[in-house]
Amino acid sequence: MKIAHVFVEHPIYHLDHTFTYACDGFDLQRGVRVEVPFGRTHIIGFVSEVKEISEEEKKSYGFEIKSIDSVIDEEPLINEELFTLADWMADTYVAPKISCIQCMLPAKLKPKSTHGTIKMEAFVQYVKDINNLTIKQKTALEDLKAVKLMPRAAFYQKYKTPGKKLIALGCAKIIEKEASAFVNEIQVQESEFTLSTQQIQALHEIRKSKHHEVFLLHGATGSGKTEVFLQLASDTIKQGKQVVFLVPEISLTPLMVNRVKRRFGNALAIYHSGLNAQEKYEQYQLVKHHKVQIVVGTRSAVFMPFDDLGLIIMDEEHDTSYKQDRMPRYHSRDIAIERGKYHDAKVVLASATPCLESYARALKKVYHLVEMPQRINESFPEVKLVEMRQAIKNGEDATLSNTMLDAIYERLQRKEQVILLLNRRGYTPILRCISCGHVIQCPHCDVAMSYHKQDKQLKCHTCGYQMPVPTHCPSCGSSTWRYLGMGTQKLEELVQVKFPQAKILRMDADTTGKKNAHEDILQAFANHEADILLGTQMIAKGLDFEDVTLVGIVNGDAMLARSDYRSAELTYDLLEQASGRSGRGDKRGEVIIQAYDIHHYAILAAANHQYQYFFQREMKYRHMANYPPYTYLVSMVFQHKQEAAVSQSVSYAMEYLMKKEGFKVLGPAGLHKIKDEERTRILLKGKDQRQLSRMVKDVYDRHIASKQKARLEIDLAPIILE
Ligand code: ADP
Ligand code: ZN
Ligand code: ZN
């Protein structure tokens, strides 16, 4: 008889092994989805293996092998490369294999989802030429013949009357196809620039090798890295291979997409979290069916179903958005490198502020280091530091110093543009009772609620819970609140009061909820519909506006107050990246950083654009404190609604860990409520990555085997320790 091993995902049981089903009479391949009976229900699973077994073997199962109900896919969703990758991920990140497969697929194709309807679209297809057509009909038919297929809407928009006639005459017909069926031809344009010596040099280095290699392109902001990417992509496309451009955030996709389109036409797929399930599915199919050679996207685009990948570009490789924050907690960089090896493709990691680990690897020659220290326009913005304590002592505004106000005023006079950045991490407006000091917290999380002025609501940034501002303090009954801290909304108001004529655009989590909001805001700013773009982290990265000559950072050292061992690195990255937005055109740029501790090395290094200086200092600190890249960290987070369940699981894990040696256990940290669940964390720190990973696997297996109630989430290389 023929049997199939099927992965299923079940919400209650933590299943990571396959179940066996009979599949005689079904045409089945590894990698397709099937519907199977499971307990009293029927669920969707994923076939990992199909094989023949003998009567003997069948008996050895000792239970009746049920048959699958039906087969969902004709073709496998996951090919051999991705199966191997899923194995590798499950092993490397200590995660259930099914979760690794899930994260590779768009929602419509995930094993557990039903095979939802796929949207079809109407197209007009060329059929034949006939005599006696009018001139207009002839033109329309010629046009259609050239491309063979055109979306009906587009065709009718161009040739309404002659178009309809052509269909009536049988020269063209309407067909239904998946919306992704139609794409434009790829066209490769030459670069519009004469490349700089530095760009030529970098290209030469990267082109030298014909095989897989990982490059770290360390190039200053505005050094022309993107132009290097496009040139490499052009090489790869001409060889008939696929290219993926990864960007860290959805706000950066429009920019990259525009530059890629200018160079290669419209034949590309775009993949990011802002797309709905149908759109994601369509983009996925474009790649799967070889309709496009180029993909631009965020983190998960690294899993697209490539089968002949030649180049992976990872822009802003230091960015923490590349790390997945759920199991499997993968990093796109690791995945990119694994896939690069498999396809014998080049991987280019690029950044003005490479992550410490990457730069250390490049110095050890694990990655091939390529440096581009000069800006295209050969001038770095001048950075001014403003010490806020002093400014406040002088009676200046506590949020915007006189230096900042003067600089903004100048830009407005000269009709140049300004970017104002408020580093929101650790700096949000909260409500505190004037009489007793009580801070309003989220009832579901141990987190202070943030005040949103527009709708006069308190919102929890962790779980999204909202409530109106209470009339009385729940602790003492007083009715006067103090609004502490500065959010983007409040900053916008303040700037508007100081500069009533200025047009301001705000970009933060509140203004970018709607579809295409990022694109619209950035486009409006590019069109000079506003003088000032104000926002959080998301405006610090990658943007390229030539008329921005001032970048102001309101609270440059807010992040240094965090206890995270990477807070200096995150601060430096943010400041250097943000300053990189100033003076990218012909006009010289300026940057003003307001901070309390202006002598901190992270701030000084950013002010002087000295990556090496920062790197040396930070490595020394990491060495002394025994932090990565000198050691490895593993985090284990236990969570459950009941405190007792968490404590029990933690004790059970600790009991095992205490018997082992060769590493340090930090924690468990005190319980902390998030989304109504109690959670705590244990951190392991050690020099032997293999040993750590083996131990964590043991802890995980014991946890599952002993049927612990708490959920255990493992992160093999945590980069943000909240
Ligand atoms: P990066 O990606 O390193 O920040 P970009 O590739 O965005 O830098 O280049 C910065 C600016 O310089 C862009 O506006 C780009 O169009 C322009 N640029 C890039 N290469 C050249 C070149 N060789 N000659 C002139 N301008 C260039
Ligand atoms: Zn909450
Ligand atoms: Zn009170």
Automatic annotation (TrEMBL):
Domain of life: Bacteria
Binding-site residues for Zn(2+) 1, renumbered to this chain: 433, 436, 473, 476
Gene3D superfamilies: P-loop containing nucleotide triphosphate hydrolases, PriA, 3(prime) DNA-binding domain
One Gene Ontology term, aspect cellular component: primosome complex
Gene Ontology MF terms in the entry: 3'-5' DNA helicase activity; ATP binding; DNA binding; hydrolase activity; zinc ion binding
Cofactor binding: number and manner: Binds 2 zinc ions per subunit.
Cofactor(s) the protein needs: Zn(2+)
Subunit (UniProt): Component of the replication restart primosome.
Enzyme Commission code: 5.6.2.4
Similarity section: Belongs to the helicase family. PriA subfamily.
Entry protein name: Replication restart protein PriA
Alphabetically ordered keywords of this record: ATP-binding, DNA replication, DNA-binding, Helicase, Hydrolase, Isomerase, Metal-binding, Nucleotide-binding, Primosome, Zinc
Residues the record lists as binding Zn(2+) 2: 442, 445, 460, 463
Gene Ontology terms: biological process: DNA recombination; DNA replication initiation; DNA replication, synthesis of primer; double-strand break repair
Function: Initiates the restart of stalled replication forks, which reloads the replicative helicase on sites other than the origin of replication. Recognizes and binds to abandoned replication forks and remodels them to uncover a helicase loading site. Promotes assembly of the primosome at these replication forks.
Nuclease as UniProt keyword: no
Reactions catalysed according to its record: ATP + H2O = ADP + phosphate + H(+); Couples ATP hydrolysis with the unwinding of duplex DNA by translocating in the 3'-5' direction
Helicase ATP-binding domain sequence ranges: 206-372
Native source organism of the sequence: [Eubacterium] hominis
Matches recorded under SUPFAM superfamilies: P-loop containing nucleoside triphosphate hydrolases
InterPro entries tied to this protein: DEAD/DEAH_box_helicase_dom (IPR011545), Helicase_ATP-bd (IPR014001), Helicase_C-like (IPR001650), P-loop_NTPase (IPR027417), PriA (IPR005259), PriA_3primeBD (IPR041222), PriA_3primeBD_sf (IPR042115), PriA_C (IPR041236)
Presence of keyword Transcription regulation: no
UniProt cross-references to PANTHER family, sorted A to Z: PRIMOSOMAL PROTEIN N
